[in-house]
Structure to design on (566 residues):
């Protein structure tokens, strides 16, 4: 059981949510925005997290958006992974989500909680990195719209009291040739040792990674290196891995050496698949 | 068993278990006992194991970090018995409680050793372990 | 603005298996704990209480979720169905019993929910046929639907 008490509020609007957060913050309650609860509750139960106030975002209308409008696909932060997969406007996202956690977890995990939470894998973020999506954030300084790269690529850069409201994606990226691969330690349902999402758009391939390093990311340098068709694929891959921009993780799932081996094979499969689909 | 030589991953397709039960009294529960034991033994052999830090603290005390096989991951089980009546047992029956669990890690390791072309005698038999045993050094970049 | 200052206990109305229940809970109480300890519905089990084993699975508005990581204070306004709500006569329970899973117990309940959920949608014809093969009542219900 969770050993400490906390406030629980269910605001009806973005403004109420942010105000509640600020109010709780001023009372030094260390508030948190609450989505599906899978991370917050499990961590609170084992005392890895302590909070005096939870602000549930699931009743905010903008956070429940799931629609196409003006050439954009708009996804609210309180939508669950299952709902996004069922919607299937973005097949790459669907495929990524269906190999992420198990079904009953996906029925609760919200995309907002998933990309803003403490678990660093954020696999469902990768497709949005590939589409150069925009995000709507609400915080003490108001509502702002920003590129996903400035806020989520390679780490979380939210301001205090800021919550994710929506992800906005240009429709033309939703049905490009794509590929995703996830390698785990051994079991199908597990955190990734390596997860790659990739897209072939126009004459250019885009790549995003999770599980290899401590943050999910997409990198200009890696995109360029892997698109360098003057070199054979193995050479491009070796180069990319040798110059990996972040430390490669060594943990209970895999050692760094093994991770590099898995990454190399996964990149090889990714390039082959994209050349096939995009060419 | 299907072994991927490139990835060092594998899939257990079928498991054959034959035990001397002395005398099978309830065929359903005898089969159930073996199937359950084999399932547990294979789970133990392929992925289970506590990981400790320097201070001896268990690092994987949760089911999400201490993995066991899930429903749907099990192989096809073929179970049979030979009957050499055991004079002291009820109606000639022997105990077969743990045979499935005890026998399966060895058989998995043997099968993987043959498939991977290298002697494997450590548990759990994860792809990383197999990759290392096969001489990982030359795969390093 | 929703007022803070209710960090202690509060009264909530839960709708479980079609019946309304009024109970006092902490914000920190999970749905699982409240179902078991306040309402006496011990069908959902506290297996790992970590979101990993599925023994606590219940349906919330028809969707199977793990009740060990949902708060009771989130439940008002939502229909919760526990295994007790199936009445022991559901076709899937019958099918599972037929498959020699002697007691539909503990972690099997999570499986049961998944199977039920699958059967209630049209996307899993194989599973429906499988369950129909194991359960005469399910097969009959299917035949009637056509």
């Amino acid at each position: 059981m969770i050993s400490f008490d906390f406030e629980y509020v269910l605001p009806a609007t973005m403004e109420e949510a942010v105000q509640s957060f600020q109010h709780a913050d001023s009372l030094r309650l260390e508030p948190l925005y609450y989505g599906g609860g899978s991370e917050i509750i499990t961590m609170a139960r084992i005392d890895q997290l302590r909070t005096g106030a939870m602000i549930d975002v699931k009743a905010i209308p903008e956070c429940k958006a799931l629609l196409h409008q003006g050439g954009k696909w708009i996804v609210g932060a309180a939508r669950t992974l299952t709902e996004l997969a069922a919607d299937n406007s973005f097949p790459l996202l669907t495929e990524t989500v269906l190999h992420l956690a198990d079904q009953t977890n996906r029925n609760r995990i919200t995309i907002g909680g998933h990309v803003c939470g403490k678990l660093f894998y954020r696999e469902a973020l990768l497709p949005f990195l590939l589409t150069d999506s925009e995000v709507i954030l609400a915080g003490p300084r108001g509502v702002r719209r920003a590129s996903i790269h400035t806020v989520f690529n390679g780490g979380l850069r939210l301001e205090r009291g800021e919550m994710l409201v929506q992800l906005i994606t240009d429709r033309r990226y939703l049905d490009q040739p794509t590929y995703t691969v996830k390698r785990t330690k051994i079991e199908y349902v597990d955190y990734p040792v390596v997860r790659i999402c990739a897209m072939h758009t126009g004459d250019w391939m885009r790549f995003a990674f999770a599980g290899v390093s401590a943050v999910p990311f997409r990198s200009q340098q890696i995109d360029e290196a892997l698109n360098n068709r003057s070199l054979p694929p193995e050479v491009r891959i070796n180069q990319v891995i040798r110059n990996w921009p972040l430390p490669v993780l060594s943990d209970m799932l895999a050692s760094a050496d093994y991770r590099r081996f898995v990454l190399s094979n996964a990149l090889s499969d990714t390039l082959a698949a994209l050349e096939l689909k995009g060419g | 068993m299907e072994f991927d030589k490139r990835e060092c991953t594998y899939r257990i397709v079928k498991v054959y278990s034959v035990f001397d039960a002395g005398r099978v009294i309830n065929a359903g529960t005898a089969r159930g006992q073996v199937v359950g034991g084999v399932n547990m033994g294979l789970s133990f052999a392929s992925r289970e194991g506590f990981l400790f830090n320097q201070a001896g603290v268990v690092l994987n005390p949760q089911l999400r970090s201490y993995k066991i096989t899930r429903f749907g991951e099990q192989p096809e089980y073929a179970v049979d018995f030979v009957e050499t009546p055991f004079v002291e047992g009820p109606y000639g029956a022997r105990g077969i409680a743990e045979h499935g669990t005890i026998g399966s890690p060895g058989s998995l390791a043997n099968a993987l050793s043959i498939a991977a072309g290298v002697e494997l005698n450590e548990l759990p038999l994860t792809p990383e372990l197999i990759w290392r045993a096969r001489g990982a050094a030359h795969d390093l970049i | 603005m929703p007022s803070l200052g209710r960090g202690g206990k509060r009264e909530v109305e839960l709708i479980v298996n079609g019946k309304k229940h009024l109970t006092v809970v902490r914000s920190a109480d999970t749905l699982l704990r409240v179902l078991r300890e306040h309402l006496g519905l011990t069908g959902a089990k506290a297996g790992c209480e970590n979101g990993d084993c599925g023994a606590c699975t219940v349906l919330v508005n028809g969707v199977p979720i793990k009740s060990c990581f949902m708060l009771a204070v989130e439940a008002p306004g939502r229909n919760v169905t526990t295994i007790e709500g199936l009445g022991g006569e559901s076709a899937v329970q019958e099918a599972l019993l037929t498959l020699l899973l002697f007691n539909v117990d503990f972690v099997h309940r999570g499986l049961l929910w998944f199977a039920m959920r699958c059967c209630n949608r049209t996307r899993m014809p194989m599973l429906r046929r499988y369950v129909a093969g194991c359960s005469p009542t399910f097969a009959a219900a299917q035949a009637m639907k056509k």
Summary: Helices of chain C lie at 31-38, 91-98, 107-119, 125-134, 136-145.
